[in-house]
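Re: [ENG-882] Designed sequences occasionally contain unexpected residues at chain ends

Forwarding the minimal case from QA. Structure tokens:
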């Protein structure tokens, strides 16, 4: 068995606009995910998080295209398959998604049991209907639901927290090796958010899922979820390290600015007033010669906008900033 459940190698993914322009939405992203590991991926809206997820799942549906790179699950590449092969051989079994806006992903005209049954039949057309229902009752009971009632309900009859659990239950029916949770707690109240995160932990403890990518724009939330964090900006990873390193000692200006722009209940952060990140991300339909954060960076230097910024090791984490190991970085966002 491969040392890593998921390996993403120099992945580059682009969109083609109706006018033929090429938008390099993901540009040279690499990371590895071990058995039992939760990697948090954080960044503001539009930074490429969801596009990266689509690339990791092999969901190249025009106008989205693979530029280059590779994605391996348990040592086997999942790229180069037809959409039908990808649906049957990869999605749901090797990698599954809890989608963004999960509460709207359930068909309001169908009962929960019918949607869950379709999930199983799409991978095992000869499955016995009674056997499927018994399996659904066991799984839904296992995730803390009144299985008989929930399975025979329409989504509109269920509260938000129960619907979210149904989505998670359906997404993980086939015990996928990797689960991608794309902002699974958005639009939920705080107590429901906690129950959803607790459920995801329980699924990992029960080995229903092996590893997880947790996508969010709320960097402080990841302290309670992930063991490591990758901060994404303009299609690239700009910092990749342990959760404690990134949240409390970010070495990339954007990481520190992102943390400083959010309300947080973390020690030392409660009394701090959020500071907005001025400006807007760069357009990705052109080659950017230097740092992509340069135009917004509070410690920008004359060579930042013209010198290529490669991701490099700074101590025990990867950072895309040539000034990450200098005193300049301490001027961003104050003491974190």
């Amino acid at each position: 068995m491969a040392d890593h459940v998921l390996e993403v190698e120099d992945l580059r993914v682009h969109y083609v606009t109706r006018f033929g322009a090429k938008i390099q939405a993901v540009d040279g992203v690499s990371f590895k995910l071990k058995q039992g590991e939760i990697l948090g991926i954080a960044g503001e809206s539009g930074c490429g998080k969801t596009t990266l997820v689509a690339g990791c799942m092999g969901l190249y549906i025009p106008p989205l295209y693979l530029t280059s790179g590779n994605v391996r699950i348990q040592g086997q590449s999942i790229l180069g398959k037809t959409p039908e092969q990808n649906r049957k051989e990869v999605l749901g079994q090797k990698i599954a998604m809890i989608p963004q806006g999960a509460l709207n992903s359930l068909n309001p005209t169908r009962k929960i049991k019918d949607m869950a049954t379709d999930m199983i039949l799409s991978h095992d057309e000869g499955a016995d209907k009674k056997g499927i229902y018994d399996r659904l009752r066991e799984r839904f009971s296992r995730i803390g639901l009144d299985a008989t009632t929930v399975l025979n309900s329409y989504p509109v009859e269920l509260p938000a927290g129960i619907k979210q659990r149904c989505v998670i239950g359906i997404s993980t029916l086939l015990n996928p090796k990797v689960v991608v949770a794309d902002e699974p707690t958005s639009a939920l109240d705080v107590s429901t958010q906690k129950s959803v995160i607790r459920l995801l932990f329980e699924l990992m403890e029960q080995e229903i899922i092996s590893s997880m990518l947790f996508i969010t724009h709320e960097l402080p939330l990841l302290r309670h979820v992930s063991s490591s964090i990758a901060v994404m900006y303009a299609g690239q990873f700009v910092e990749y390290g342990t959760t404690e390193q990134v949240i409390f000692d970010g070495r990339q200006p954007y990481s520190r600015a992102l943390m400083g722009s959010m309300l947080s209940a973390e020690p030392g952060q409660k009394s701090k007033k959020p500071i907005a990140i001025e400006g807007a991300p760069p357009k990705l339909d052109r080659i950017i010669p230097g740092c992509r954060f340069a135009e917004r960076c509070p410690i920008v230097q004359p060579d930042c906008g013209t010198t290529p910024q490669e991701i490099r090791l700074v101590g025990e984490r990867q950072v895309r900033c040539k000034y990450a190991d200098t005193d300049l970085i301490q001027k961003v966002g104050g003491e974190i």
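QA comment: On inspection the terminal residues look reasonable. DSSP finds nine helices and twelve strands in the chain. Proposing we downgrade this to a documentation issue.
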